[in-house]
Specification:
Elements lengths: L1 E3 L2 E3 L6 H7 L7 E5 L2 E2 L15 E6 L5
Length: 64
């Protein structure tokens, strides 16, 4: 299990891109932090989550 934004998800072994799609996030408008380290967008297709990872997904919002 992987803890994402405080909730447990069964996504170990899936790529960042797969998880973002599964959770309905727009990969162009988020930052993903795994175990206190930011994952570069260029790595979303290849980086996979491991059992026990703690992940925060932050969405960028426009405004003014």
């Amino acid at each position: 299990m992987v803890k994402i934004n405080g909730q447990q998800h069964d996504v170990a072994g899936k790529t960042v891109t797969e998880v973002l799609e599964q959770l309905n996030f727009n990969s162009k408008r988020v930052a993903v932090e795994r175990n206190l380290e930011i994952i570069p967008k260029a790595c979303y297709e290849t980086e996979t989550f491991n059992d026990g990872d703690e992940v925060e997904i932050v969405t960028f919002m426009g405004g003014g």
